[in-house]
Amino acid sequence: MNRTIEFKTFVHAAGDAMIAADPDGVIALWNPAAERIFGFTAGEALGETLDLIIPERFRHRHEEGYRQVMSSGTTRYGHDVLRVPALHKQGHVLSVAFTVTLLFSAEKDVDMIVAVVRDETESWNQTRALREQLKDCETRLAKTIGSSSNVP
């Protein structure tokens, strides 16, 4: 059975954010999941640069990497997942994971970069809490072992 999927319907219904930006980092696609994750409506995000969702302290590094990808036309994040902090409209930091796809013009230049983004903030916070609990248990165990070795 041959069935086609309507692109706009798929992007609109996707649970993960789909964000596309041009070579200058200007946002050209912002789906409802992006609205839910980052808090910005499509009207607020479209036409803005990706700095909208990049924490200030990471903008320089992001810009360098972005320019490199745009000029080389290659990225390892087409298959490797990149996990980074991102910025919500309300100012709090999110933990997101994403892959990207490069779209090329007829002249073989990068025309657009599309990111499929997932909010992993809750999972990241749970992992951090578990690591802190483990560290606390290790510290208590070390103290217990240390104090028991002093007993004759």
Question: What do you see in this structure?
Answer:
- This protein has 152 residues and is α+β, with helices and mostly antiparallel strands.
- It is 39% helix and 24% strand.
- The protein has helices spanning 7-13, 32-38, 42-45, 59-72, 121-148; strands spanning 17-21, 27-30, 82-87, 93-104, 110-119.
- The chain has a five-stranded antiparallel β-sheet.
- The longest helix is centred in the C-terminal third of the chain and has 28 residues, at 121-148.
Beta-strand segment tally: 5
Cα-atom Rg, whole angstroms?
21 Å
Which of globular, elongated, flat, extended, rod-shaped describes the shape? elongated
Strand order of the largest sheet: 2-1-5-4-3
Overall average pLDDT: 89
SSE arrangement, N to C: HEEHHHEEEH
Give the terminus-to-terminus CA distance.
Answer: 79 Å
**Number of helical elements:** 5
Brief sketch in words of this structure:
By secondary structure, the protein is α+β, with helices and mostly antiparallel strands.
What features would you highlight for this structure?
5 helices; 5-stranded antiparallel beta sheet; 152 residues; 5 strands; alpha+beta
Secondary structure layout:
Elements: H1 7-13, E1 17-21, E2 27-30, H2 32-38, H3 42-45, H4 59-72, E3 82-87, E4 93-104, E5 110-119, H5 121-148
Antiparallel strand pairs: 1-2, 1-5, 3-4, 4-5
